Amino acid sequence: MAISKCESGMKQFNEDGTIRGHSNKNGTYDIGFMQINSIHLGEAESMGYNLDTLYGNVMFSLWLYDKEGTSPWNPSKQCWESSV
Length: 84
Known about the structure:
Layout: H1 2-8, E1 21-23, E2 29-31, E3 36-37, H2 41-46, H3 54-68, H4 77-82
């Protein structure tokens, strides 16, 4: 939950109903509640997860956490590590 708070303010959607996202300098973008990077889109979709939904975003983030730990969210580590 600390990661989501730092990444997206614990929100899947913006006030106008669009998916909460963030564009990165390298041309990728982050999606939703857990700010899953777009490099994972194909893998998430092949597993049946739609990152645009709260369910799909959270379920894929749990799978990603089991696979890689917290490293996918290291850019915000200073924020969430201090709140744990």
